[in-house]
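To fix ideas, we quote verbatim a fold written out as tokens:
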Amino acid sequence: MDSSQLPLDLGHRPALGREDFLIAPCNEVAVAWVDQWPDWPGHALAFYGPSGCGKTHLAHVWRTESTAVFVSAKDLLESDPTELLGKKGGCILDDIQDQLTKDTELQRKLFHLYNYAREETGYLLFTGREAPARWDVSLPDLSSRLSAIPSFEMGAPDEFLFEALLVKLFYDRQLTISKEVLRFLVLRLDRSFQAARDIVSVLDQQSLASQREITIPFIKSVLEA
């Protein structure tokens, strides 16, 4: 392969607006709670489910409506809770489960943020593979706080959502596929968000590298490889 055939990883920008979120039975309860904000049962809420199930996308939707800010584990360690919550009134703690269980200082920081949010009528939105009540934290006070958070599962997609998800993922990369290609993929892939993301990424890269359109014969060659 010469240099002109090398795929250029220019990146793509996922569509994360409310109008781009795909609603189905596996996520409609979580969506309903975003719609009910700020009338939540408390000041904290959690969405959990497998990788790629739409937790982060839905968090972006809530961010737009609430002006909340995303807070990473690094932010939590290096900042004061008053700085994080600030005038925004809301924080999104997206997928910090693994880091939290390994770091007691991070647990203490989250405990203080949680208490500050409650005192100031702020809001916290957690996402993770599991409900916060199941996170293995060593700080007893934080464990009791996490156990009290209302948590809603976002499950694997059904056939119709999976098909719509594939269309969205291809569209995010500015790729157009035929109905025949779409059906071919739906019938052969594991029905998971991660499988959809992986195959679209691979097909995009291989299509660029070989300068071929995404057709059924092309997909067969990729899958066989």
